[in-house]
UniProtKB/TrEMBL annotation:
Lineage, top ranks: Eukaryota, Metazoa, Spiralia, Lophotrochozoa, Mollusca
InterPro entries named among the record's database cross-references: AB_hydrolase_fold (IPR029058), CarbesteraseB (IPR002018), Neuroligin/BSAL (IPR051093)
Any matching Pfam family: COesterase
Chain ranges of the Carboxylesterase type B domain: 27-176
Family recorded in the similarity comment: Belongs to the type-B carboxylesterase/lipase family.
Identification of the protein by name: Uncharacterized protein LOC101856406
SUPFAM superfamilies: alpha/beta-Hydrolases (SSF53474)
Coiled coil stretches, renumbered: none
Superkingdom to which the source organism belongs: Eukaryota
Originating species: Aplysia californica (California sea hare)
Length: 188
């Protein structure tokens, strides 16, 4: 699937607008942009990596960082682009401002963000070392997160109360894959 559809009629634009005005997490525009630039391509990517499943077992893990950091101030909500880097690296205040161009208050980084940072760093370092994010470098169980496969479509929704779910943003993926192409044919 490609996300390039060419010109869209006003009817198609109205239908997509209606969808996002009624189904959003952060805001209609933020969610539309996140889906177009990040979420849908990420799903396409992991599907491509697992296309030989079940013949070849999957070693691909999909993580959806769904957390609203308290240290971001102003109008920024949710996990904005590149903010996950603040959970991965120890960065001083000046480094943060270079990496993440959002209003930031270091004093608002509370125990939840610190715990998430610890867990995120350990999951990713375990994945880099072993190919499995579930067991920490000391052998401790970090989470119970199955690899992505095209049937279950499992992913880890990473937040204060992380949980394994299936079919990340499924309604939005189907919008871009099925409904928009259908509408473009229906309303040229």
């Amino acid at each position: 699937m490609t996300l390039t559809y060419g010109n869209a009629s006003n009817e198609v634009i109205d239908k997509v607008t209606f969808f996002y005005m009624n189904y959003f997490d952060v805001s209609p525009l933020n969610d539309l942009a996140a889906d177009f630039f990040f979420n849908i391509p990420a799903v396409q990517y992991v599907e491509g990596l697992t296309q030989d499943f079940p013949r070849r077992p999957s070693k691909t893990y999909l993580l959806y960082f769904k957390h609203f950091p308290k240290f971001l101030t102003g109008d920024v909500q949710g996990m904005a682009h590149a903010v996950d880097l603040l959970y991965l690296f120890d960065a001083g205040n000046l480094d943060v401002l270079k990496m993440v161009p959002y209003p930031y208050n270091a004093n608002s980084c509370g125990p939840v963000d610190k715990a998430l940072k610890y867990k995120y760093m350990h999951m990713l370092s375990a994945f880099v070392k072993t190919g499995n994010p579930n067991k920490g470098l000391g052998g401790d169980l970090i989470c119970d997160w199955p690899p992505f496969d095209p049937q279950r479509r499992s992913y880890l929704q990473f937040s204060e109360f992380s949980e394994v779910k299936n079919d990340v943003n499924g309604d939005r993926v189907r919008l871009w894959r099925e409904r928009i192409p259908m509408w473009i044919k229906q309303y040229p």
